[in-house]
Amino acid sequence: MSAEAIIEAKAVSKWYGQFHALKDINLTVHKGERIVICGPSGSGKSTLIRCFNRLEAHQEGDITVNGIELHPKMKNVADVRSNVGMVFQHFNLFPHMTVLMNCMAGPMWVKGVSAAEARKTALRFLERVRIPEQANKFPVQLSGGQQQRVAIARSLCMQPAVMLFDEPTSALDPEMVSEVLDTMTGLARDGMTMVCVTHEMGFARAVADRMIFMDAGQIVEEGKPDSFFGNPQHARTKLFLSQILKH
Amino acid sequence: MLYPDTVEAEILVHKPWFVATMFGAVFAIFLAFNLTSTSFGELMRPVIGEPSQSGLYGRFAIAFVIALLFVLNVVLIGFASLRVQIAIVWFELLLLFLAFFATFHLSLPFIWEKLPFLISQGVVTTLYVSAISIVIASLIAILGAVAKLSTNGFAYAIASFYTSFFRGLPLLMQVYLIYLGLPQLGFVVGAVPAGILALSLCYGAYMTEIFRSGIQSIDRGQWEASRSMGFGFSLTMRRIILPQALPVIIPPTGNQFISMLKDSSLVSVIGVWELMFLARTLGQKTFQHMEMLISASAIYWMLSICLELIQSRIERHYARSKVR
Ligand SMILES: Nc1ncnc2c1ncn2[C@@H]1O[C@H](COP(=O)(O)OP(=O)(O)OP(=O)(O)O)[C@@H](O)[C@H]1O
Ligand SMILES: [Mg+2]
Questions:
Q1: All structural domains of chain A with their residue ranges
Q2: Domains of chain B listed by start with CATH number
Q3: Which of A11, A184, A213, B279 is the most exposed place for a label (fewest CB within 10 A)?
Q4: CATH for the stretch A5-245
Q5: A84, A90, A92, A164, best to mutate vs chain B, most B CBs in 10 Å
Q6: Comparing C-alpha atoms, which of B197, B195, B207 is closest to residue B139?
Q7: What is the ipTM of this complex?
Q8: Per-residue pLDDT reduced to its tens digit, A15-33
Q9: Per its UniProt record, what InterPro entries does this chain match (chain A) (predicted)?
């Protein structure tokens, strides 16, 4: 692939105390690429993507995001974070602000955009996730699926170079899962660079350029969706896929 | 409000067993005391004749009438709407208190004569001493809370020493320490500034703990979301964490304010002419202690009520984002 690398992780290791949570991770995310990470619970998927915007610190190896290297003494972490959107399992909207304000806050307070400008951007992205009519409500007044779509819009308002999703649908009721996945599929179609931790294999098959399977802090297998689902190489991948696709 | 159910509960005070129990209890209590020689006896004279000679019949009749009036009152209030109920019960309790104070036979003219000075000198001093102290204490509390949550050893040590010291020493001692101790170091402070300093430091220590627990009550996810958008520490604190912590912080802080209002009377030991000091001294000359003390108490109470009202307004403001 020749496109420029947005995220580059080289030989990354991370420990929680004695516990080795990430072991020698090498991963490059290119511009426009859609990557889906899956793996059993506790395998380090969240830890890995949280290292990409330095919500977590890695101890060994290098992570470079948008050309900026992440390290403990960095001064410009805000530059990295405002370029990396993150969507959480539990939405984490700001409950004391309206939906509109949730979306306006980032551009106004980090980028210094004027209120009018921020409002226009916010409404555009709320339109895009198809809930402009909820703009003046508070997050608690929305359903789970709507809240997650607001969270996506909130991240998009920062016009990030890459979006990270950490199991965005696993706290949702089944009928709300598809509205969020539809939004994400739309984003993928528009060329957004995405790294998604998810167990929604239908979504993965449809949008992923590359599948990554993690177990016990390591990348065990990676490949194109076709070969990944059709012909997994590793026993652990096979076992995991057979379990997750059983239902 | 507790979580309100949408199914209306039966009204407790209209249930026969409750009414009967209430009647029985009130009746028994008043039967136990002999009220024939009090003003109740006088009021009942048409029914029971000469109160002092009415004996057991008089006692029985008085207790019966009181219990009947009481039960009737409660049952009738039970029919009213929530707001009216609250208003009536407040009014009746207040009336009972006034009746109680009436038995002291206070000299109203004396109160009227002294009241203007009590207010213009005492209340004004009390108010501005507490108001300034409250503002300073809040500022200290924010700094202290952040320091106590920080990973900076110096900040944590200073903040924890401060809260430990000022929560551990009696406020009176702190007032003396500042008023009498600081001049030893070469800083001579006036009585009013010393009082304000003591109150601010003491309440700042308590409020540090309130603010700290409020900040800690906010979900980690809020920090993560805020940080992941690129907000720095102080922006996250000011715009994301503190606004959400405020509803948790406000009720106990309101408590502190009310309690400070009254504790400000301690600064009278260093000669500040605040409300309590004046109440004690004004009544001394003529031995009319109760007049002034009761007036001062009433004033304290009214000031507290004002604070309570302000607090409930603020709470309502912050409750907006919680209702569906
Ligand atoms: N703050 C922490 N302190 C200590 N251990 C942690 C911490 N956070 C995560 N871990 C451990 O690191 C491992 C990886 O955690 P992580 O949350 O990345 O897993 P995951 O793959 O996202 O799992 P899930 O699918 O359940 O979300 C787990 O074994 C977990 O117990
Ligand atoms: Mg996870």
A1: 5-245
A2: 12-103 (no CATH), 110-320 (1.10.3720.10)
A3: A11
A4: 3.40.50.300
A5: A92
A6: B207
A7: 0.93
A8: 999 999 999 999 999 999 9
A9: AAA+_ATPase, ABC_ATPase_HisP-typ, ABC_transporter-like_ATP-bd, ABC_transporter-like_CS, MetN_ABC_transporter-like, P-loop_NTPase
